[in-house]
Amino acid sequence: MDRPSSSLSDLKSGWGFLWSRRIPPKVKTFGWKLSKNALALMGNLNTKNPEVADICPVCKTQGEDVFHAFIRCPVARQTWALSSLPWALVSSWQGDAAQWFRYIDQKLDGPVLWNPPPAGVIKINCDGATFAKSGMVGVGVVARDFEGRVIERRQRLLEFKASPELAKLIFEKVVEDYSRG
Asked: Name one Pfam family in it (predicted).
């Protein structure tokens, strides 16, 4: 018989802490689905419909289960390499997503990276980057409400060589245009 997700054993096992975090509800839901192996991965789809191949649609080399999709897949590894999380921390997952989230949370015990605005206020966050090898400049803007829900997002990738100073000016112009609607 399935236990309710808010049971005392879930809280003690490490899962309950995620619900108390100040992160967007969709991230919490994703984490819960990950921990319950309820993501729409090819391996899961294959168990319900054997005609569906369980091969990873990204790398096309192995069966796609949760561990493959997030750790073993070469594209997942490349993605993690671009993140700010150290690989030793990412690869510490032993199959229990709840414990993994808790472990990462403890290791990253630092400042909150995003604080929501007061109720009724929309917060706009933005960032930009230059890509020296390709000569591209990327800018992105996201607007979220007090619960962390994305109201709107925009991004632009511009193809030209630019110094960081010029990229900053372009970035500021995109943010200004976005703020005006």
From this structure: zf-RVT
Residues with Cβ within 8 Å of residue 101, at least 6 apart in sequence = 14, 15, 17, 18, 31, 35
Sequence-distant (6+) residues with CB within 8 A of 153 are: 140, 141, 142, 143
How far is 70 from 64, CA to CA, in rounded Å?
10
Q: CB–CB of 122/143 below 8 Å?
A: yes
Question: How confident is the model over 13-32, as pLDDT tens digits?
Answer: 556 667 777 777 887 788 88
Residues in the chain: 181
Place of tokens 């991230």: 27
Domain range annotation of the chain: 8-107, 123-180
Summarised one tens digit per residue, pLDDT across range 95-146 is 677 777 777 777 665 555 677 888 998 888 877 777 667 767 777 778 888 8
List, edge to edge, every strand of the sheet that includes 150-159: 123-131, 136-144, 150-159
